Amino acid sequence: MDVVLHDTSPEDGRFYDEELRQALMAAFCDVLHGSRLPPMAVLRMTAEALGSVYREVSDAHRGDHACPCGWRPNPQADIALLQAALAMTAQILREPDLLRMPIAGRA
C-alpha cells in the first residue's frame, strides 16, 4: 500500500509542521526534565498522547453530530499513515536537514 504523507501542499503545511514540532519538543523537554523519566518512556507517552488525540478527533467526525468538514476517519489507513510518517521522519539522517537548521544569516 502506498502511503501519502501530506494532505496539504508543502506551502500550506510547512509552517504548521514546524509549529507543531516545536510545541511537541517543548512539551517533551518539560516532561523529560520534570519527571526524570528516560527519553524512550517520554517518547512512548508522546505517542500515546497522539493516539488519544487521533481517537478524539476521529470520534468528533462520526455519528449524527459529526464535524461538517467532510473528513471521514478510516482508522486502518489513518494509523498506517501516522506510522509511516513516524518511521520516515525518525530515521537518522546522514546529511543535515536544511529545513530544520536555524537561519544563520542572509546571503
Which descriptors apply to this entry?
107 residues; globular; mainly alpha; 3 helices
Notes on the protein architecture:
The protein has helices at 10-35, 39-59, 75-90. It has 107 residues and is mainly α. The longest helix has 26 residues, at 10-35. It is globular, with a radius of gyration of 17 Å. The N and C termini lie far apart (43 Å).
The CA-CA distance between the termini, in Å, is: 43 Å
The dominant shape is globular
> In angstroms, what is the radius of gyration?
17 Å
Helix content range: 55-70%
Structural class computed from helices and strand pairing: mainly alpha
Indicate the low-confidence ranges by residue numbers: none
- The number of helical segments is 3
For the secondary structure, the number of strands is: 0
**Share of residues in strands:** under 5%
The biggest sheet amounts to: none
Briefly, what is this?
By secondary structure, the chain is mainly α. 59% of the residues lie in helices and 0% in strands.
Question: Topology, please?
Answer:
Elements (H helix, E strand, L loop, with lengths): L9 H26 L3 H21 L15 H16 L17
